[in-house]
Design brief:
By secondary structure, this protein is α/β, with parallel strands linked by helices. Helix content is 38%, strand content 19%. Helix 1 crosses helix 9 and helix 6 packs across helix 7.
């Protein structure tokens, strides 16, 4: 980028662009399809802002950096974007990456609206600089646990890889299910082949297996192994983190992709705004938009509203989180302080448990709402 850096917090009156830094996973091992949907939403909203006179006559510009699911790369990107003079940060999908970005944004005094990451402890200490659109993991995963109990599952195995995010998810499920008669059996995927998972499910009499693992692997191999094991014909496979949301899941697994419930952050019925944006996102992506694309759009809609109202001064932007009231694609967006959450939080976006319909794997069924 050849444009000279702008003053970090100064008002600019020369008609040049107002910049937002965007953190997006666009290469492996990042979840590239999620990153593409997130970026499509961000870009669509920027185009609409600029079609409507930008930020008080100044164009809004998105400065995109690929995080590739790497926390160190994300932290370095935050440093670079701060030097480039962005007014705020947007985006990120992976929780462990967003946590690193949030820590740097907090240290540098750079407003960051996190689009998709759900880890409760997004920062170690409460911060005024960071806000989040996605529901906290403790909120969404408890709704998923309610769904499991309602479907009659009491012995639930989790195939888990080591990560702060997966460990947090397993703890939320265990703490919520135990007082309600549920048992969580943790299977450490560092030492288990997908076929060995099947034996563990039989030995532990599990009726459900949750995939707390990466996509596409080992998630795809585990699904194939379980679905081919006649002993496990009645075992439900679940993926609370949302691996089945994207088209790649159906492409890799075919019929095996269906009937795997996951969390999705959409209302049962979109508003007129949401329906219009869904159509525009579908055109941009060439496929049905995931909830992640809506998160991207809503992120820029919120930041643009704040920048119009308070200018590009970083401190004034961060001070205005509690005054936000923006009509997003999935409802009215406002931020508050929520117990146990260290950032400004939209409490809450709609939460659904859905799966791909076995009769039509390209369609989703709503199984539970919270």
């Amino acid at each position: 980028m050849n444009t000279p850096p702008s003053p970090p917090a100064a008002e600019r009156t020369d008609g040049s662009s107002v910049r937002i830094g965007a953190l997006v996973p666009l290469s492996r091992p990042g979840w590239v399809e999620a990153g593409q949907h997130l970026l499509a939403g961000l870009e669509l909203a920027v185009r609409e802002v600029n079609d409507a006179d930008g930020i008080v006559g100044r164009p809004l510009e998105l400065v995109v950096r690929d995080t590739a699911a790497d926390p160190q790369r994300a932290a370095a990107a935050v440093d670079e974007l701060a030097r480039l003079g962005v007014a705020a940060l947007a985006g990120e999908y992976h929780s462990v990456v967003a946590r690193a970005a949030a820590a740097r944004a907090d240290a540098l005094g750079l407003p960051f609206l996190c689009s998709s990451a759900v880890l409760d402890a997004l920062t170690e200490q409460p911060t005024e600089w960071v806000a989040r659109l996605a529901p906290a993991q403790s909120h969404g995963w408890r709704i998923y646990a309610d769904f499991l109990l309602g479907a009659g599952h009491r012995r639930i195995a989790v195939a888990a890889e080591p990560s702060v995010y997966w460990a947090s998810g397993a703890r939320i499920l265990r703490d919520y299910l135990a007082p309600r008669g549920g048992t969580v059996i943790e299977l450490d995927m560092r030492g288990l082949a997908p076929t060995a998972v099947c034996d563990e499910l039989v030995d532990n009499r599990a009726t459900a297996l949750l995939l707390l693992v990466g996509h596409p692997e080992p998630a795809v191999s585990i699904v194939k192994s379980v679905r081919r094991d006649q002993r496990l014909a009645e075992v439900m496979i679940g993926a609370p983190a949302g691996q089945p949301e994207f088209a790649e899941w159906a492409t890799l697994l075919g019929d095996d992709s269906a009937a795997i419930p996951f969390l999705r952050y959409l209302p049962e019925r979109l508003s007129p705004l949401g329906a219009r944006i869904e159509t525009a996102l579908r055109e941009r992506l060439g496929e049905a938009p995931s909830f992640v694309a809506f998160e991207g759009y809503d992120t820029v809609a919120v930041l643009a509203d704040m920048l119009r109202s308070h200018g590009a001064d970083r401190a004034r932007t961060a001070a205005s989180w509690p005054r936000v009231a923006v009509e997003g694609t999935r409802g009215q967006i406002q931020f508050s302080r929520t117990p146990g959450i260290s950032v400004w939080q939209w409490a809450w976006t709609p939460v659904q448990v859905v799966d791909r319909d076995p009769a039509r794997p390209d369609r989703f069924r709503i199984l539970h709402t919270g």
